[in-house]
Design goal:
about 400 residues; seven-stranded mixed beta sheet; transferase; methyltransferase; Rossmann fold; single chain; CFA/CMAS; S-adenosyl-L-methionine; alpha/beta; four-stranded mixed beta sheet; Nonspecific Lipid-transfer Protein, Chain A; elongated; CMAS
Length: about 400
């Protein structure tokens, strides 16, 4: 590839019309001079990564490793590169790029960054699920406090107004779930995949509900139990480090699953919804809140960057499939709501929090991990904005005798 400008090669990857300035280590440049953002390719290792993984994964590896820098806002850069970041580049172009970069790959090839992770074991076995959850959620509670803010809520918020703060929006989300579940004092709530216990504590503090949360993350459970004690909610709220499948209690008035379904896997969904159905009393309600595909995908593969760096073994399904499986498990579906735009706003807030604490975050988790999070949140925000992914809440009920639902004629 001697004599071929590096910026010209990269221009072929992202598209000649992309509004991004390319500046390469060999002095070559491409793209409009007045572009709002620029990519700086600082090492030939970045090209070697593109040779082995043309498209978004190769670019992500180079960014995580610090071989590509972004001048300007990362979300703006990804928006300009949407054809690469949201959709795979055509196979023919991938093959041409790989052939063109073969010489540089032979000289500068390196293994993927150490942060790339594929958990061992049988897919969605209990042991593998524990490893996958620990990889993402047991990073550092301090790091999550910086990114998520005081609510420590790592799920889509619900913004009551356009100028609402993240904390107001997370409180509104918890209250929305509580309203859909019709929580009242004395009721019993099971929150599966409860994270740091936000919904558990909201149900106890605001509605007098006896709430049990379970999570596979030891860090989350320890933080949540300490916070429950600090707030004086120990008589009503509890978070256990436990697989949801090992909950022995039943007869709950309500079950909330906020951000767990993405980790379950398609083959396990019937058992998952069947298990939650069995935990409810007659007329008990389930609120399932999860990220979904906007339509039935042509391939089952999650984005390779997300699956290898962020959510190992994560699987997203279209809304219709989830509703069908809920129905087949016995639930009557009463309400559905798409909060796609709210998740884009949530991610924008998390991204701003990370930037505010950037130096401390790098010191806490390392530059590579911090870059993973910066890229993941910016890319996910773009995905929700462009309808590449969605966020749905589905409300179901376990009917009582002769089809009784316990629902009013109107409302939730």
């Amino acid at each position: 590839m001697s004599g071929v400008p590096v910026a010209g090669i990269l221009s072929g990857v992202i598209g000649a019309d992309a509004p991004v300035r390319l500046i390469a280590y060999d002095g070559s440049k491409a793209g409009p001079d007045g572009a709002e953002v620029a990519l700086r390719i600082s090492s030939p290792r970045a090209l070697a990564r593109l040779a082995s993984a043309p498209g978004s994964l190769g670019l992500a590896r180079a960014y995580v490793a610090g071989e590509i820098e972004v001048d300007g806002d990362l979300h703006t850069a990804l928006s300009a590169l949407a054809d690469v970041t949201l959709h795979s580049i055509p196979r023919g172009r991938q093959l041409r790029l790989a052939r063109q970069l073969l010489p540089v790959w032979l000289r500068h090839r390196v293994p993927p960054p150490d942060l790339e992770y594929r958990p061992p074991g049988r897919l969605h076995s209990r042991a593998r699920d524990r490893r996958a959850i620990a990889h993402h959620y047991d990073v550092s509670n301090r790091f999550y406090e910086w990114v998520l803010g005081p609510s420590m809520t790592y799920t889509c918020a619900c913004f009551p107004t356009a100028d609402a703060t993240l904390e107001q929006a997370q409180a509104a989300k918890h209250e929305l779930v509580a309203a859909k579940l019709a929580l009242k004092p004395g009721m019993r709530l099971l929150d599966v995949g409860c994270g740091w216990g936000g919904m558990v504590m909201h149900a106890a503090a605001e509605h007098g509900v006896r709430a049990l949360g379970v999570t596979l993350s030891r860090n989350q459970a320890q933080w949540a139990q300490a916070e429950i004690a600090r707030r004086g909610l120990g008589d009503l709220a509890e978070v256990r480090h436990l697989d949801y499948r090992d909950v022995t209690e039943d007869g709950f008035d309500a079950v909330s699953s906020i951000g767990l379904t993405e980790h379950i896997g398609k083959a396990q969904l019937p058992r998952y919804f069947g298990f939650l159905y069995g935990k409810l009393r007659p007329e008990g309600r389930l609120l399932n809140h999860c990220i979904t595909q906007p339509r039935t995908p042509l391939t089952r593969r999650l984005d390779p960057f997300i699956s290898r760096y962020v959510f190992p073994d994560g699987q997203l399904e279209p809304l219709g499939h989830l509703v069908s499986v809920m129905n087949d498990a016995g639930f009557e579906v009463r309400h559905e709501e798409n909060l796609r735009e709210h998740y884009a706003r949530t991610l924008a807030c998390w991204g701003a929090n990370l930037e505010e604490h950037w130096e401390a975050a790098v010191a806490e988790v390392g530059p590579g991990q911090a870059r993973v999070w910066r890229l993941y949140m910016a890319a996910s925000r773009l995905g929700f904005e462009r309808d590449n992914i969605q966020l749905h809440q589905v409300l179901g009920v376990k009917l009582g005798e002769q089809g009784s639902s316990g629902f009013p004629l109107r409302g939730w």
